[in-house]
Specification:
With about 110 residues, this protein is mainly alpha-helical. The protein has a domain at about 50-85. Helix content is about 60%, strand content about 0%. The protein is built from 3 helices and no strands. It is rod-shaped. The termini are far apart.
Amino acid sequence: MDLSGRLRLMIMTEQPRSPFSVPGVGGAAQFVQAMGRRPSPAAKAAIIVFLAVIAVPIVLLVLAAGLVSAVVYAVLTVVSSLMNTVSGARPKGPPPPPGADDEGRRNVRVRS
């Protein structure tokens, strides 16, 4: 075999290394590493129960609170704008007492 044949043979027989594998360690160690990265069925069940019991209701409550606050804000905005429209047609404050001048003052002398 010439040099190019040996090089080709080395490239074909060399297995790709994982960044987590230890050089010189066989397939058993790689299997143990792979099993350590996967959650067990009990861990999967615990994650599903956590999501179903705690996370989903919290997210739903936050969404409901946001929706309610948006509706209340919209209603209050409409009521405020209607009140400003209606109150703009008449003067604000109590009516002036009888005997008051045009500016609402009573018994005021103006010095010249």
